[in-house]
Amino acid sequence: MDERAARLQRLGELREGRLPLYGNRFRPTHSIPDVIRDFGPRTSEELEKADGSLKIAGRVLTLRSFGKAIFAHLLGGGAKLQVYFRRDAMGEQGFAQTRWLDTGDWVGAEGRLFRTRTGELTLAVESFQILTKCLRPMPEKWHGLADVELRYRQRYLDLIVNPEVRRMVEVRQKVLAGIRRFLTDRGYVEVETPLMQPLAGGASARPFVTHHNTLDMRLFLRIAPELYLKRLVAGGLERVFEIGRNFRNEGISTRHNPEFTMLEFYQSFATYEDLMDLTEALIGEVAKESVGGHRVTFGEGELDLTPPWPRLTLAESLVRVGGLPEENVGDPDRLQRLAVERGLKLDALEGTGGPGALQMALFEELVEPKLVRPTFITRYPIEVSPLARRNDEDPSVVDRFELFIAGQEIANAFSELNDPIDQRRRFEEQVRHRREEEREWAAVDEDFLTALEIGMPPAAGEGIGIDRLVMLLTGSASIRDVILFPLLRPPKVDAT
Hints:
The protein folds into two domains: 3-138, CATH 2.40.50.140; 160-322 and 367-481, Bira Bifunctional Protein, Domain 2 (BirA Bifunctional Protein, domain 2), CATH 3.30.930. It has 15 helices and 18 strands. The chain has helices at residues 3-16, 32-39, 44-49, 87-96, 148-153, 155-161, 163-185, 226-234, 272-291, 314-320, 332-341, 356-366, 420-436, 446-454, 466-474, and strands at 54-65, 69-76, 79-86, 106-115, 121-132, 189-190, 196-197, 209-212, 217-221, 239-247, 259-268, 295-298, 301-304, 311-313, 375-381, 397-405, 408-415, 459-465. The longest helix is centred in the middle third of the chain and has 23 residues, at 163-185. It starts with a helix and ends in a 22-residue tail after the last helix.
C-alpha cells in the first residue's frame, strides 16, 4: 500500500469511529510563537508552578514513537514546539488515537509545559484532536525542498518546509507598510487606478490584451499607472501614490516576471532632484524597519544602503564606469563602432537616429552590471524618455534618474513633462515607431493630452519595483523567490 492509500485508510477509520474531524470548534489559548516568547525564558521549576493548561494548534512536522510515548513537533505561526504524548497521562483511549497521526496533520492539543532532560520546552499532552488530515506524504527532508520549480509551483509546501519563505513574506509586508507610512506622513494620498485600460500607455512595453464582452471593446492590462496618476495631479491631488500590479507581456528572467508590483508616486512642485533625496530617505527608512539596518547580505557580499548615494549623469557613467573615451560619448559613428567592437546586439537600434539609443545599449552592457553600490544615474537621452521633461540646459537629454543597486534598476523617476504640445509630438513619434514594429495597439492617448491642456502643475514622479527591493533586502537571487506565485509553464504531462 502506498503512502497516500495508507493515509486514506486512516481517514476512513477515523470516520468509522465517529471521531471529530474537519471540525471548527477548537480554540487555541496560545499561538506557538506566544508560547515560545512567554514561556521560553522560564526554568523547569517556574514551569511546574505555572497555573492551568494551554491549548495550542499546529501542523505535525515529526513523529517519534517509543511504544508508550510519542514525541512530535508542531509548526504554527512560523515556529516549532515539541509535544509529548504519554499513555500514562492520557489514558488508554486517548493515547490510542495517536495511531491515526501522520506528519502533516493539523492537530489541536491541550496540556502543561515542562522541560525535557535536554532542556527543550515541551507540551505534555493531556488531550488532543486531529483537526485536518494530511492525505499526501510530506517531503522527506523538512530542512529543505530541493526542487526549485516544485517550490514555486506548490508554494504551500515551500512555506511549510522552508522558513526563509515565511521570512520573505514578513519582510515584504514590512516594506509595504513602511512605504505607506513614509508617504502618508509626508502628505501623499493613496489611490487606485484601472488595471484594465482602453489604451496601452505609460511605458514602452508590450501589453496583455483582453476583451470586454458587454461593451464589445478591446482592453489592455496596465503596463503602468502613470498616465492615470498624472490625470489626478492635473485635477489638483498634489501628492498621490499607488502600490499595485503591472503587467508586461515580455521576457521572464531572474529579474523579470510578467506580473509584478510597483510603487508609483507623484509630487507637484518638485523636480527629479527632490525625488533623489526622498528616495534615499524612503529606502533607508524602509530597510531599517524591515530588516533592522542599512547593511544587507546579497550574494557573497554585503550592500551598504546608508545615504547619501553617488550621482552620475549617463554620459559620465560611460566614461568613469564603462571606460569609454570621453570624446566618443556624443558621436554616433564612434559609438556604433565601439558597440560593434564589444559585440553588442544592435538590431533593435536600426533607424533610431542620434546617439541616445546607442548610449543606452552601451550603458546596459558596460555600466549597469558594475553599479553594485546604490547609484543614481541622471540625464537620459530624450529618445528613450518620451514622458520626461527636457533639460533646460541640454534639450537632447531629460530630467530623469534611475537608481541602480547590485547591478539592477530599482527606481525610475522624471521631472514630468507638462507641455501638451511637446507631449503630443513625442506621443506621435512613439506611435510611428511602434507601428513600424507592427505593434497594432499603438495609439495617442487623447484624453491624457486633454488633461495636460487643462493644465498639470510642475511635478516629478517615480516608480520603484517592490519585488526587486524585497530581493535586495532578503538577499534573494531571483524575483521568483519574492513573488509567492510566479508565472510558470504548465507542468509536463506524461502521455504514456
